[in-house]
UniProtKB/TrEMBL annotation:
GO cellular component, one term: plasma membrane
Protein name: ATP-binding cassette subfamily B protein
Membrane topology reported for the UniProt record: Multi-pass membrane protein
InterPro entries: AAA+_ATPase, ABC1_TM_dom, ABC1_TM_sf, ABC_transporter-like_ATP-bd, ABC_transporter-like_CS, P-loop_NTPase, Type_1_exporter
SUPFAM superfamilies named among the record's database cross-references: ABC transporter transmembrane region (SSF90123), P-loop containing nucleoside triphosphate hydrolases (SSF52540)
Regions crossing the membrane: 39-61, 73-94, 178-197, 257-280, 286-305, 317-335
Keywords: ATP-binding, Membrane, Nucleotide-binding, Transmembrane, Transmembrane helix
Amino acid sequence: MSSPTSAGTPDTGRGSALPGLARTLVYTVRAAFRTDARLALVTLTLAPAAWLDGTLAALFLKFLTDAALAHDGVAVVVAVSTLVVTLAGGWVTASFGRRLQHTLQEKAGVALEDELIQVSAGTPTLQHLERSDYLDRLDPLRKEAWIVHWTLESLAQTLGALAQTVLTIALLASVQPVLALLPVFGIPALLVGRAAALRERDAQEATGELRRRQHHLVTLATNASPGKEVRVFGIGDRLLRLSRETWRVEHARRTRVAWVGAGWQVVASAFFAVGFVGALVVVGNAVAAGLAGVGDLALALVLAATMSGNVGMVVSMFQWLAGCLAVGSRFLWLVDHARDEHRTVGASPATAARVPDRLRDAIELAEVTFTYPGTSRVVLDKVSLRLPAGRVVALVGANGAGKTTLVKLLCGMYAPTSGSIRVDGTDLTEFDLTQWRARCTGAFQDHARFEVTLREAVAIGDLDGGPGERAVADALEAAGAGTLVDVLPNGLSTQLGPTWPGGTDLSGGQWQKVALARGLMRPEPLLTVLDEPTASLDAPTEEALFAGYAAQSGTRGAHAVTLLVSHRFSTVRTADHIVVLAGTGVAEQGSHEELVARGGTYAQLYELQARGYR
Ligand SMILES: Nc1ncnc2c1ncn2[C@@H]1O[C@H](COP(=O)(O)OP(=O)(O)OP(=O)(O)O)[C@@H](O)[C@H]1O
């Protein structure tokens, strides 16, 4: 459990380091075995076996050459048979192996996506979805998560390439022991390949922001919602130019690193060529001196020629594996981040304080200071506030004053950097956050558009309560969307979202009402937050809705605090208590009458809006 007065939302990003490749390998291989142990085992044995047939074929070619030169008919038949069996076995193993690997990848892919949903949605705070350096890190994972499915396959192929190389070395040594040194000439290529893979991973990490930016520009040009402004302002060409320029810079940075790696690869390959020529000279001299046979020469020629390919394959398989692990390490980072947060944010269910059944006194903020993790700007500075039980508190202030931030802190999406939030005297960090959030509800300005049936879109506001038809209809009614059921083609069973078969789009206001209805599903919340969820609704509708919500907070018996954030003073004035945020703190607070009488910021803003309606 973190100390609310010192730690704040933990910076669990483990500095800038991603988990190491070896740890990522162990994690992903274990995950593949968890998914399907038999398939994983078959993949790890069949794929490497398929690599050996070419090398074994070279050995049987030597037997064939020796048998032919010795005019031994039986030995020729045996050599040809083993050669055919080896090659055919290799093909069959490769084909079966591919099929099984494909099945394993599909299974591993689904398992990975399941874990991704579980980890991302289950992480206590919003850091990994909001912090720009974390997003740069997670972006490749979002787009290329499928690459992680290939880890076991790439490991199997790397092992195969290594096994082939070891067998080749053993056979070369059997011709002339000194030939066992040939792979030494391939070591620079291996080292260069590994260094190049790591540098490319770093370059990818460093250019993450540019790729996200370019993707954002494409999203702006290809989605309906920004589509109106894109056309009205005629910014299509500008988006194109920006996208091209962003891609150019990002691409240039990454390709520069790739070209440097390729250059070193050429140097390393030239080094190997020197070793290859040396090997040929050694075997040639041995045959000339009668120390080796023609079969040995054939074997050495074939193997030495493929040795460079072998080393190259080991390098490229290794690079492939490193590429899979680079994406996998981001996944593991997220898993670590989630685990760290579960350990440090809030209390564990076993030791947590009990969330009260009903609020008796108040939710209080004591000297709460908050800076978003990864940034330096103080958003809230020593804010102290009392939100009394059963009351409606309105939060007003200019854009960026910190209203939504305060809402996030109250819902436990972040912990204060210092200071504390207390619920009837118990620090929020002493609760298990899942249990606390089960007693929070509300609706948000950037509400989700769940493209499911209307019934589900509302019912998920209270999953524990089951999908009770009556409760859903009542919530829609209370949210001012009762008529939606009659208007939509299949009533509550209507699929929302125009891109689905039989799906229907809703207007902005209708989507907001669905979100509000969802927020009304929780039976006995202790905290209801309404963070500008009604921007698309007209003022009287907003006022009626807020009044309905406020009434619920008292009548549901839990004496909830209703916190409403709105820029409409006609609604704000109906609240029991009004808090004006400005700068980094509370500028003034009181009832509407008190604040108007004081003639401060609130009074001026209220007068400004009231004049607009006269
Ligand atoms: N995830 C974030 N990371 C870093 N800074 C943030 C983040 N979210 C908000 N901020 C900053 O915190 C400050 C307060 O933002 P907040 O969203 O709380 O304001 P607000 O009062 O709700 O504004 P509005 O009325 O426009 O909704 C702003 O300066 C904003 O830039």
